[in-house]
Amino acid sequence: MRLTVVAIALGLVALASGAYYPASQPVTGVKYADKDFLFKQKFFFEVLRNIHLPLQFEEYFPYTKSYVTDERKYVNYQEVVEFFNYYKAGYLGKGELFTIYNQEYMKQTYYLFNFFYNSVDFDTFYKNVVWARENVNEGMFIHAVTMAVFHHPQLQGFVLPAIYEIYPYYFFNTDVIHSVTFRKLYDQKFGFVSNGKYNVVYSNYTATYPVEYYGEDKLSYFTEDIGLNAYYYYFMIDYPYFIGTDKFNLYKDRRGELYAYMYQQLIARYYLERQVNFLGPIEEFDYEFPIKTGYWAKLSYYNGIPFFVRNDYYSVSKDFYYQVNLLKDYELRIRQVIDKGYYYLEDGSKIDLRKPESVEYVGNMIFANPDSVDKDYFGYLEIVARQLYSGGAKFAKYFPSALMHFETSMRDPFFYQLYNRFLTFYYQFKSYLQPYTYEELYFKGVEIKSVVFDKLQTYFEYYDSDVSNVVPLKSSSEKFFDFSVFARQKRINHKPFSYTLDVFSEFAGKGVVRVYLGPKFYDFKELQYLKKYFVEVDQYLYDFVAGKNTIVRNSRDFYYSVRDRTTYTELYKKILTAYNGGEKFVLDNSEAHCGFPDRLLLPKGLPSGYEMTFYFIVTPYYAPKVQQFSTYDYTYSCGVGSGSKYIDELPFGYPFDRDIDFSYFYTKNMYFKDVLIYHTDDFKANFSY
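Above: the chain's sequence. Below: its structure in token form.
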């Protein structure tokens, strides 16, 4: 079996529904998976089933005892030898608590990933994955396999189950897991389709319990949203903090700038949700003083150990003051370099930090990835801070908190306080750049005449997620086909809406439309402070004609967002049906992992309406250095490391990424539109059956 995707999707909506940055061209036609593709797709679903139990599929049993050692079966055998040696020296055991923010476990994950990545063909990959499934720590295995599928160029197009269904323990409170397992103990029919009406347990957010975090509990519907947390997890898998350089080409995606912008957008979106809940600014903190906001995750690990609890007014133990000093030193070094405006590399070359493009260096510097300059000097802010506020290095290893996992970080209110602090370096760098000139803002001959929105309305609905993987089930694929248990949870959503944008143009040609949503302001100069809280919700290339242009755009087409994933069981049924000669399996990007949940485009409104502001800007088309989509197929890939993901060359967040000169900022190709976002308490059902 060759390590190639033999059937690729040509049908689906554009990458608009599948990437961090937008597609701007439609896709036509449909292609279906062939038998070879379906065999491989089936394999991924089966090895990730009931990850804490031995494999239940006899076809894999012969490969569980040993890995492939033949040098000819690997692209870079030296990297594989590193894994062999490290594994023999001792890997984290099965059943042990795993966190990717532990340096030792991170190294082990990286070597395991390289072991998979260097397979010369699918047969080798397949055998090694089966071996690792039975012999390597479960959390580490999930990380390494997911990274391999997302990063290996010949595995593009394969779909993995949603992470919250592979490992529900990190997404659903302990009471849900207990309810599912207890129901199965006293009702052996529970979970099977023939008993479908009983296969549901209800899931609550932390706010349901009598624990308050100074109002933060009001936001649990947002911070604990499984789609939001999965989005962050997948971004961190696409751009792991521990891989980089020319091997993976992540730098081609403007990695440093993208990283900083991703966090800025998350903080901005969180701020908007705080606003509508009347919570005020994001809390600031100081390393020298207790942290006001505690957090009790209500999550437990597979073995029953609860997540580390951080109490209110949490103080750092004196045993970990050295980590506080490390953080202060790292921050001081970064601030000094940004203030100084330059940095010399080891070879004597100078980085000018007064150039806009140097944001790439600053982003990598803050987040200390392998593409960073001198990361040993600028340090590992993220890792040290997460450990420190998870009880210190020892607790973080043996008793990890929510901050110590990609999957659970965004549940903790302190996550937003921490990254809001880290972003001050990004803002500091941007503050030294000159405001955009009138010529850089104005699009001569183009004027936005009006913008009209449909009614904007949010609501809560019930949604079912497949949590079958928490139920031990020793059976064949035929029984897995028939087994599903759902966690039913209330979540925020919005009604689909459209806007009509009328633009007058004196010429025919290409332009790029950017759309942001941000806080309502009453004094135009407040925008200087509030601009960092505007969230980019749409961006697209448009062919303008001379004269009037009327653009009608539906929220379902916004570039940044993705729809809900199909459940694990439903997808597995489709794969098996097609594999056995039934209904064909369509290959498309409808199960894209790399996009923001469409449901969370709008902050929760109020019954009487909550005021917010949309901002529109039309800019000339500045072609990127590498033409969009020219180095990857956007119909089935997210384009990570391709260098051709973006529509144009403008900085992320333009024009809000620099200080504003109000004497000329508001040009005719811009438009601010005040809106009201309403909320209704009428529940809607969105059940899986």
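The first strand starts at residue 200 and ends at 203.
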